[in-house]
Design goal:
single chain, alpha+beta, two-stranded parallel ribbon, 3 helices, 2 strands, about 35% helix
Length: about 70
């Protein structure tokens, strides 16, 4: 959050941000038992995702894996 805050304060707010599917940006509780019991497959947003949404920034998730 601090890195994004610093970046946005220097560069301004973008319309969209392109990120990987890391747990910082996307909830990673794939089929956890507590969701299976409730039959609820909608996962809550992460804090960073909520903050970006409140700022009106669209989050675009990378569809390809990272190669080194």
């Amino acid at each position: 959050m601090k890195v994004l805050e610093e970046f946005f304060s220097h560069k301004g707010l973008p319309k969209a941000i392109y990120v990987d599917k890391d747990a910082k940006f996307k909830t990673q509780r794939y089929q956890g038992i507590h969701y299976n019991i409730k039959n609820d497959h909608s996962y809550p947003d992460t804090q960073i995702r909520r903050a970006l949404s409140e700022l009106g920034i669209t989050v675009i998730y990378a569809g390809s894996p990272h190669f080194s």
